[in-house]
Amino acid sequence: MKTPTYVAVTIALTAVAALSGCGDDGAGSGGGRKITFVQGVKGDEFYISMACGAQQKAKELGVKLDVTGADKWDASLQTPVVNAVAAKSPDAVLIAPTDTQAMRQPEQQLKSRGAKVIEVDTKLDDASIRETAISSDNERGGMLAAQTLAAQVQERGAVAAISVKPGISTTDARLKGFEAEIKKHPGITYLGVQYNDDDPAKAASIVTSTIASHRDLVGVFAANVFSGEGAATGIEQAGKAGQVKLIAFDATPKQVEALRKGSIQGLIAQKPFDIGAQGVEQAVAALDKKPVPKAISTDLIAVTKENVDQPDVGKYLYKGAC
Question: For the chain, which residues score pLDDT lower than 50?
Fold first, then answer.
Protein backbone atom coordinates (compact mmCIF):
# COMPACT_ATOMS: atom_id res chain seq x y z
CA MET A 1 0.00 0.00 0.00
CA LYS A 2 1.90 3.15 -0.61
CA THR A 3 3.96 5.73 0.73
CA PRO A 4 1.34 8.18 -0.42
CA THR A 5 1.19 11.72 0.69
CA TYR A 6 -2.27 12.42 2.00
CA VAL A 7 -2.99 15.46 -0.12
CA ALA A 8 -6.13 17.41 0.51
CA VAL A 9 -8.65 16.91 -2.24
CA THR A 10 -10.70 19.82 -3.36
CA ILE A 11 -13.92 18.01 -2.72
CA ALA A 12 -14.50 18.20 1.00
CA LEU A 13 -15.02 14.49 1.41
CA THR A 14 -16.30 14.37 4.94
CA ALA A 15 -16.90 11.12 6.77
CA VAL A 16 -20.61 11.40 6.06
CA ALA A 17 -20.14 12.23 2.39
CA ALA A 18 -17.64 9.48 1.84
CA LEU A 19 -20.08 7.00 3.25
CA SER A 20 -23.31 8.13 1.72
CA GLY A 21 -22.24 8.52 -1.87
CA CYS A 22 -20.13 11.49 -2.75
CA GLY A 23 -19.20 12.45 -6.26
CA ASP A 24 -16.67 14.72 -7.84
CA ASP A 25 -18.75 17.65 -8.97
CA GLY A 26 -16.00 19.10 -11.13
CA ALA A 27 -14.33 16.03 -12.57
CA GLY A 28 -15.73 13.93 -15.33
CA SER A 29 -13.98 15.62 -18.22
CA GLY A 30 -12.16 12.41 -19.18
CA GLY A 31 -14.57 11.55 -21.97
CA GLY A 32 -17.46 11.69 -19.50
CA ARG A 33 -16.30 8.46 -17.87
CA LYS A 34 -18.05 7.51 -14.67
CA ILE A 35 -16.65 5.23 -11.97
CA THR A 36 -18.47 4.15 -8.81
CA PHE A 37 -16.81 2.87 -5.66
CA VAL A 38 -19.01 0.48 -3.66
CA GLN A 39 -17.57 0.35 -0.14
CA GLY A 40 -17.75 -2.75 2.02
CA VAL A 41 -19.57 -0.74 4.69
CA LYS A 42 -20.22 2.88 5.57
CA GLY A 43 -18.64 4.45 8.63
CA ASP A 44 -15.38 2.52 8.45
CA GLU A 45 -12.30 4.76 8.25
CA PHE A 46 -10.54 2.08 6.21
CA TYR A 47 -13.04 2.64 3.39
CA ILE A 48 -13.10 6.40 3.96
CA SER A 49 -9.33 6.43 3.48
CA MET A 50 -9.75 4.27 0.38
CA ALA A 51 -12.33 6.72 -0.96
CA CYS A 52 -9.86 9.56 -0.39
CA GLY A 53 -7.25 7.81 -2.53
CA ALA A 54 -9.82 7.02 -5.20
CA GLN A 55 -11.10 10.61 -5.29
CA GLN A 56 -7.61 12.04 -5.60
CA LYS A 57 -6.71 9.72 -8.47
CA ALA A 58 -10.06 10.38 -10.18
CA LYS A 59 -9.40 14.13 -10.17
CA GLU A 60 -5.89 13.53 -11.47
CA LEU A 61 -7.18 11.40 -14.36
CA GLY A 62 -10.23 13.54 -15.10
CA VAL A 63 -12.97 11.02 -14.41
CA LYS A 64 -16.11 11.31 -12.29
CA LEU A 65 -16.20 9.17 -9.15
CA ASP A 66 -19.21 8.39 -6.96
CA VAL A 67 -18.95 6.59 -3.63
CA THR A 68 -21.70 4.51 -2.06
CA GLY A 69 -22.17 1.56 0.27
CA ALA A 70 -24.45 -0.29 2.66
CA ASP A 71 -24.92 0.58 6.32
CA LYS A 72 -23.72 -2.83 7.52
CA TRP A 73 -21.33 -5.51 6.32
CA ASP A 74 -23.98 -7.79 4.85
CA ALA A 75 -24.33 -9.23 1.35
CA SER A 76 -28.12 -8.92 1.53
CA LEU A 77 -27.70 -5.17 2.09
CA GLN A 78 -24.88 -4.70 -0.41
CA THR A 79 -26.78 -6.44 -3.20
CA PRO A 80 -29.47 -3.73 -3.67
CA VAL A 81 -26.74 -1.07 -3.55
CA VAL A 82 -24.91 -2.84 -6.38
CA ASN A 83 -28.15 -3.31 -8.30
CA ALA A 84 -28.83 0.43 -8.07
CA VAL A 85 -25.31 1.15 -9.31
CA ALA A 86 -25.74 -1.26 -12.22
CA ALA A 87 -28.95 0.53 -13.24
CA LYS A 88 -26.92 3.71 -13.77
CA SER A 89 -24.49 1.91 -16.13
CA PRO A 90 -21.17 3.32 -14.92
CA ASP A 91 -18.10 2.69 -17.04
CA ALA A 92 -16.29 0.96 -14.18
CA VAL A 93 -16.97 -0.09 -10.61
CA LEU A 94 -14.59 -0.52 -7.70
CA ILE A 95 -16.19 -2.90 -5.23
CA ALA A 96 -15.31 -4.52 -1.92
CA PRO A 97 -17.60 -7.59 -2.06
CA THR A 98 -18.93 -8.55 1.37
CA ASP A 99 -19.10 -12.27 0.63
CA THR A 100 -16.86 -14.45 -1.51
CA GLN A 101 -19.83 -16.15 -3.19
CA ALA A 102 -23.06 -14.28 -2.46
CA MET A 103 -21.93 -11.17 -4.36
CA ARG A 104 -21.13 -13.08 -7.55
CA GLN A 105 -24.48 -12.49 -9.25
CA PRO A 106 -24.61 -8.75 -8.45
CA GLU A 107 -21.07 -8.34 -9.77
CA GLN A 108 -21.94 -10.37 -12.87
CA GLN A 109 -24.80 -7.95 -13.49
CA LEU A 110 -22.33 -5.05 -13.43
CA LYS A 111 -20.15 -6.79 -15.97
CA SER A 112 -23.07 -7.76 -18.21
CA ARG A 113 -24.03 -4.08 -18.38
CA GLY A 114 -20.56 -3.24 -19.66
CA ALA A 115 -18.81 -2.06 -16.50
CA LYS A 116 -15.20 -2.93 -15.80
CA VAL A 117 -15.15 -4.51 -12.33
CA ILE A 118 -12.20 -3.85 -10.03
CA GLU A 119 -12.30 -5.66 -6.68
CA VAL A 120 -10.65 -3.72 -3.87
CA ASP A 121 -9.77 -5.10 -0.44
CA THR A 122 -12.03 -8.16 -0.66
CA LYS A 123 -12.68 -10.42 -3.63
CA LEU A 124 -14.91 -13.19 -4.94
CA ASP A 125 -13.82 -16.81 -5.17
CA ASP A 126 -14.65 -16.54 -8.87
CA ALA A 127 -11.96 -14.47 -10.62
CA SER A 128 -13.69 -14.43 -14.01
CA ILE A 129 -15.74 -11.26 -13.42
CA ARG A 130 -13.05 -8.85 -12.28
CA GLU A 131 -10.33 -7.12 -14.24
CA THR A 132 -8.07 -7.22 -11.19
CA ALA A 133 -8.14 -7.58 -7.40
CA ILE A 134 -6.21 -5.09 -5.29
CA SER A 135 -5.68 -5.92 -1.63
CA SER A 136 -3.23 -6.27 1.22
CA ASP A 137 -1.28 -9.48 1.68
CA ASN A 138 -3.78 -10.46 4.36
CA GLU A 139 -2.35 -13.86 5.14
CA ARG A 140 1.02 -12.28 5.82
CA GLY A 141 -0.75 -9.66 7.92
CA GLY A 142 -2.26 -12.40 10.07
CA MET A 143 1.17 -13.95 10.53
CA LEU A 144 2.57 -10.54 11.50
CA ALA A 145 -0.24 -10.16 14.04
CA ALA A 146 0.59 -13.54 15.59
CA GLN A 147 4.27 -12.69 15.83
CA THR A 148 3.49 -9.32 17.41
CA LEU A 149 1.03 -10.85 19.90
CA ALA A 150 3.43 -13.66 20.83
CA ALA A 151 6.09 -11.09 21.67
CA GLN A 152 3.62 -9.03 23.71
CA VAL A 153 2.55 -12.03 25.85
CA GLN A 154 6.14 -13.21 26.22
CA GLU A 155 5.42 -16.48 24.41
CA ARG A 156 3.08 -17.97 27.02
CA GLY A 157 -0.61 -18.17 27.96
CA ALA A 158 -3.91 -18.48 26.10
CA VAL A 159 -4.91 -16.27 23.18
CA ALA A 160 -8.12 -15.95 21.18
CA ALA A 161 -9.22 -14.43 17.88
CA ILE A 162 -12.30 -12.43 16.99
CA SER A 163 -13.57 -11.66 13.50
CA VAL A 164 -16.61 -10.66 11.44
CA LYS A 165 -18.01 -13.88 9.93
CA PRO A 166 -16.76 -16.71 7.71
CA GLY A 167 -16.78 -16.20 3.94
CA ILE A 168 -14.94 -12.86 3.72
CA SER A 169 -11.76 -13.20 1.70
CA THR A 170 -9.66 -10.73 3.72
CA THR A 171 -10.51 -11.76 7.26
CA ASP A 172 -10.46 -15.46 6.33
CA ALA A 173 -6.90 -14.98 5.04
CA ARG A 174 -5.88 -13.05 8.16
CA LEU A 175 -7.15 -15.84 10.38
CA LYS A 176 -5.40 -18.42 8.25
CA GLY A 177 -2.09 -16.61 8.62
CA PHE A 178 -2.61 -15.98 12.33
CA GLU A 179 -3.50 -19.58 13.11
CA ALA A 180 -0.60 -20.98 11.08
CA GLU A 181 1.90 -18.72 12.82
CA ILE A 182 0.56 -18.99 16.39
CA LYS A 183 1.00 -22.78 16.22
CA LYS A 184 4.73 -22.18 15.91
CA HIS A 185 4.78 -20.81 19.48
CA PRO A 186 4.56 -23.86 21.79
CA GLY A 187 4.06 -21.84 24.96
CA ILE A 188 0.84 -20.34 23.64
CA THR A 189 -2.58 -22.04 23.69
CA TYR A 190 -4.93 -20.92 20.91
CA LEU A 191 -8.59 -20.88 21.96
CA GLY A 192 -9.97 -20.39 18.44
CA VAL A 193 -12.04 -17.67 16.79
CA GLN A 194 -15.46 -16.20 17.59
CA TYR A 195 -17.53 -14.05 15.23
CA ASN A 196 -19.25 -10.72 15.91
CA ASP A 197 -21.04 -9.81 12.63
CA ASP A 198 -19.00 -6.59 12.45
CA ASP A 199 -20.78 -5.28 15.55
CA PRO A 200 -18.43 -3.56 18.05
CA ALA A 201 -20.88 -4.09 20.93
CA LYS A 202 -21.06 -7.82 20.19
CA ALA A 203 -17.27 -7.95 19.90
CA ALA A 204 -16.95 -6.28 23.30
CA SER A 205 -19.38 -8.78 24.84
CA ILE A 206 -17.54 -11.76 23.35
CA VAL A 207 -14.19 -10.57 24.65
CA THR A 208 -15.55 -9.80 28.13
CA SER A 209 -17.11 -13.27 28.31
CA THR A 210 -13.92 -14.92 27.10
CA ILE A 211 -11.90 -13.15 29.77
CA ALA A 212 -14.38 -14.31 32.42
CA SER A 213 -14.31 -17.94 31.28
CA HIS A 214 -10.58 -18.22 30.64
CA ARG A 215 -8.52 -16.92 33.52
CA ASP A 216 -5.35 -17.72 31.57
CA LEU A 217 -6.30 -15.46 28.62
CA VAL A 218 -3.41 -13.11 27.94
CA GLY A 219 -4.04 -11.97 24.37
CA VAL A 220 -6.60 -11.32 21.65
CA PHE A 221 -6.26 -10.91 17.89
CA ALA A 222 -9.01 -8.81 16.26
CA ALA A 223 -9.22 -9.29 12.50
CA ASN A 224 -10.78 -5.98 11.41
CA VAL A 225 -11.69 -2.43 12.47
CA PHE A 226 -14.93 -2.98 14.38
CA SER A 227 -13.67 -6.22 15.93
CA GLY A 228 -10.66 -4.29 17.21
CA GLU A 229 -12.65 -1.36 18.55
CA GLY A 230 -15.11 -3.70 20.28
CA ALA A 231 -12.36 -5.91 21.69
CA ALA A 232 -10.60 -2.88 23.20
CA THR A 233 -13.87 -1.86 24.86
CA GLY A 234 -14.43 -5.40 26.17
CA ILE A 235 -10.95 -5.58 27.67
CA GLU A 236 -11.45 -2.21 29.36
CA GLN A 237 -14.86 -3.24 30.70
CA ALA A 238 -13.27 -6.34 32.21
CA GLY A 239 -10.67 -4.19 33.95
CA LYS A 240 -7.87 -5.90 32.02
CA ALA A 241 -6.52 -3.05 29.90
CA GLY A 242 -2.80 -3.60 29.47
CA GLN A 243 -3.02 -7.07 31.03
CA VAL A 244 -4.83 -8.82 28.18
CA LYS A 245 -2.83 -7.77 25.14
CA LEU A 246 -4.69 -6.82 21.98
CA ILE A 247 -3.39 -6.86 18.42
CA ALA A 248 -5.92 -5.52 15.92
CA PHE A 249 -6.06 -5.10 12.18
CA ASP A 250 -6.30 -1.57 10.78
CA ALA A 251 -5.39 1.81 12.21
CA THR A 252 -8.40 4.09 12.58
CA PRO A 253 -8.19 7.28 14.68
CA LYS A 254 -10.06 5.52 17.49
CA GLN A 255 -7.72 2.53 17.36
CA VAL A 256 -4.64 4.75 17.35
CA GLU A 257 -5.99 6.59 20.39
CA ALA A 258 -6.48 3.23 22.14
CA LEU A 259 -2.93 2.27 21.19
CA ARG A 260 -1.55 5.47 22.70
CA LYS A 261 -3.37 4.95 25.99
CA GLY A 262 -2.49 1.25 26.23
CA SER A 263 -5.80 -0.49 25.47
CA ILE A 264 -4.29 -1.85 22.24
CA GLN A 265 -0.69 -3.04 22.02
CA GLY A 266 -0.35 -3.36 18.25
CA LEU A 267 -2.11 -2.48 15.00
CA ILE A 268 -1.60 -4.19 11.66
CA ALA A 269 -2.04 -1.19 9.36
CA GLN A 270 -2.87 -1.45 5.68
CA LYS A 271 -2.66 1.17 2.91
CA PRO A 272 -6.29 1.86 1.95
CA PHE A 273 -5.44 5.21 0.34
CA ASP A 274 -3.22 3.40 -2.17
CA ILE A 275 -5.77 0.65 -2.79
CA GLY A 276 -8.35 3.28 -3.76
CA ALA A 277 -5.92 5.19 -5.97
CA GLN A 278 -4.73 2.04 -7.71
CA GLY A 279 -8.33 0.92 -8.16
CA VAL A 280 -9.17 4.02 -10.18
CA GLU A 281 -5.89 3.83 -12.07
CA GLN A 282 -6.49 0.20 -13.07
CA ALA A 283 -10.12 0.92 -13.98
CA VAL A 284 -9.01 3.64 -16.39
CA ALA A 285 -6.32 1.36 -17.80
CA ALA A 286 -8.93 -1.35 -18.43
CA LEU A 287 -11.22 1.16 -20.12
CA ASP A 288 -8.30 2.25 -22.29
CA LYS A 289 -7.73 -1.43 -23.18
CA LYS A 290 -4.31 -1.37 -21.59
CA PRO A 291 -2.82 -4.41 -19.80
CA VAL A 292 -4.07 -4.82 -16.21
CA PRO A 293 -2.42 -7.26 -13.76
CA LYS A 294 -4.80 -9.92 -12.46
CA ALA A 295 -3.83 -9.19 -8.85
CA ILE A 296 -2.05 -6.41 -7.00
CA SER A 297 -0.81 -7.01 -3.46
CA THR A 298 -0.12 -4.13 -1.09
CA ASP A 299 1.98 -4.09 2.05
CA LEU A 300 1.24 -3.87 5.78
CA ILE A 301 3.09 -2.67 8.86
CA ALA A 302 2.90 -3.43 12.60
CA VAL A 303 2.25 -0.21 14.51
CA THR A 304 3.10 -0.10 18.22
CA LYS A 305 3.25 2.58 20.88
CA GLU A 306 6.98 2.75 20.29
CA ASN A 307 6.81 3.57 16.56
CA VAL A 308 3.39 5.21 16.09
CA ASP A 309 4.84 8.74 15.99
CA GLN A 310 7.52 7.98 13.43
CA PRO A 311 6.88 9.83 10.12
CA ASP A 312 7.17 6.71 7.96
CA VAL A 313 4.62 4.91 10.16
CA GLY A 314 2.23 7.87 10.31
CA LYS A 315 1.57 7.46 6.59
CA TYR A 316 -0.22 4.19 7.34
CA LEU A 317 -2.73 5.66 9.80
CA TYR A 318 -6.31 5.99 8.53
CA LYS A 319 -8.39 9.13 8.25
CA GLY A 320 -11.99 9.95 9.14
CA ALA A 321 -12.19 12.50 6.32
CA CYS A 322 -10.05 13.63 3.39
Answer: 1-30
